[in-house]
Amino acid sequence: MLHLLAIVSIKIKNSSMREPLRDRERLEHIIAAIDRIVRYTSGKSYNDLVSDDMMYYAVVKNIEIIGEAANMLTQEFQQSHPDTPWKMVKGMRNYIVHEYFQIDDIVVWDVIENNLPELREQVTRYLSETDWSKWKNPKE
């Protein structure tokens, strides 16, 4: 068991580096997580969300993924795309992880209804407008 934990630890350590080459992948993770949330909540109400534990925790986990992916974007990328409130996106992840038992359901629903559509639009635009061949080494 300890060997498995060591392998997982090394893999996580090696894959968590912030490098320009990975920014595109992180943005794609954000889009995928948003799309899952939309799929889970499509045609649902706030009451549906809070009464269905499986849906609720699936949504919360994907909001966490969005925040983690945003956190792993390079500072250069975040600074060159100031229209997105990256600090707030990352802050929501921290809120969920550290206040896991006191998460405000109304805040989660507000994120779904009011923040995710705009974030998806922005990230989609960044994916299409960024010259990824130049972004691999933006300091060059």
Write a structural description.
α2 (20-41) crosses α7 (105-129) and α4 crosses α6 (86-98). 16% of the residues are buried. This protein is elongated. The longest helix is centred in the last third of the chain and has 25 residues, at 105-129. The protein has 140 residues and is mostly helical. Helices cover 78% and strands 0% of the residues. It has one domain. It has helices at 2-15, 20-41, 46-51, 53-71, 75-80, 86-98, 105-129, 132-135.
Mean pLDDT: 86
Low-confidence stretches: none
The percent of residues in helical segments reads over 70%
In what range is the share of β-strand residues? Answer: under 5%
Order of helices and strands: HHHHHHHH
- When the domains are counted, the total is 1
The biggest beta sheet reads: none
How far the N terminus sits from the C terminus, by CA atoms, comes to 44 Å
Cα shape: elongated
* Number of DSSP E strands: 0
